[in-house]
Amino acid sequence: REQQALSGGLAALCGLARSDQAGVLVLRGANGLIAVRDIRPSARWRVAPQDRSLRTLRRRVAPGVFYRDLNDTEDLSVSPGASIPVGFSGPEIRAVEVQLGRLSARNNPRVELQLPGGTTMLSARTQRDGASISTRFPTPHGLPPGARIVARRPSAITRVMGYQTLRAAHTVAPNGTTARPVVVATADVCGRRSTGKQ
Length: 198
Hints:
The protein is mainly β. Helix content is 14%, strand content 39%.
């Protein structure tokens, strides 16, 4: 249920908060924005533990795109020139962050955000954290349907997040460029009916 809510945006998150009577949501924030979309593109190809086999661990799921089951995690390995859909859209999305893993110690992954019509957006910020790399793309006019993440070098995509501005009296999104957890009062962003247990 959490993954469905994180892929559905603020309305879905508020629905989950109401059903669980949660008084707060813990989301990620950076640059004054809050991540209300948080998806793992590989999840749609995940198999149940009892169905795992050597054939399911690494398999082609689209041209130039391979699902990789890494036991404790998973990703989509995307070849240069190949792409995957962002997985969400909306006029409220002000930034898209793509988290990448390394395919090897010498691998330096790079992706671009391609909008419908062929406009390519370059990242405003790339941050390394151990074996993980986060690339953030500003989308000041929102994110139209049909946007895709295009690999320019071999890239292992693990996570995609969509950030938006939240107008909440008691929530201050971090202004730093590094995304970090933010506690958001559901009453602030979802309306008073969402308040409940903390």
